[in-house]
């Protein structure tokens, strides 16, 4: 598989690491984020401002990518946010923002790229979920629900699109060294570390490696799968 790869949340963290790998593998990579900042250290084909919580922004962003670079053959739906709080203290905005960004935004992106992939009879979609989708996580009712929703979405998409050469898979990272986890305090960090069989957090490139595999030719017969990259934290689910 080659061609245009759109990586949402590609400005930093896991998305930037994925952009690095896909550029090195020969894809024409376009990154998207609210700021539109390009990932550092590589030259991407394009970097656009797109807010995946805003349906109009998604539509305009996808149109821009297709117009400038051609049909999208790979979608990495990676943009995501947390708004953590115990459920009794979780605001409506915390619920709406997380579900709109992580879940509804991803479904809209998949819908947006599906037409071109169906026409091409080829495509790769990877949704970035989380170990907490299946484990649950106190303080993350909104986030874990959004990430569990991605699994249902991916498997339904895999059924809808599978006969047309399109695969749809989920990568479920555990704890990864990015801006998202840098907010955790020391006590929470050491609690988490003690539960991870590998005894450490992942580096973003370790998640990107799994994503690169799933979009590559060796993974043509893998669809509807959940690939954990979690140091063993979620095993058994
Ligand atoms: P990060 O370092 O916080 O980066 C998040 C990326 O998403 C940034 O590029 C950000 O750019 C973009 N983004 C956020 N909201 C957006 C929106 N509404 N529209 C478009 N782009 C948006 O996060 P990360 O740790 O790399 O996480 C990437 C994905 O992996 C997320 O889906 C996260 O839930 C998942 N994940 C992370 C971990 C972890 O331990 N880090 C574990 C499991 C799963 P802007 O701010 O410019 O928009």
Short description:
This protein is 45% helix and 16% strand. The chain is of the alpha/beta class and 237 residues long.
List the helices and strands and how they pair.
Layout: E1 4-8, H1 13-24, E2 28-33, E3 46-49, H2 55-69, E4 72-77, H3 92-120, E5 123-128, H4 132-135, H5 141-161, E6 166-173, H6 179-182, H7 186-195, H8 204-215, E7 226-229
Parallel strand pairs: 1-2, 1-4, 2-3, 4-5, 5-6, 6-7
Structure explained in plain terms:
With 237 residues, the protein is of the alpha/beta class. It has one domain: Rossmann fold. It has helices at residues 13-24, 55-69, 92-120, 132-135, 141-161, 179-182, 186-195, 204-215; strands at 4-8, 28-33, 46-49, 72-77, 123-128, 166-173, 226-229. The protein has a 7-stranded parallel β-sheet, with helices on both faces. Strand 4 (72-77), helix 3 and strand 5 form a beta-alpha-beta unit. It starts with a strand and ends in an 8-residue tail after the last strand. Residues 8-9, 11-15, 32-35, 50-53, 78-81, 101, 128, 130, 173, 175-176, 178-181 line the site of NADP nicotinamide-adenine-dinucleotide phosphate.
Feature tags:
237 residues; Rossmann fold
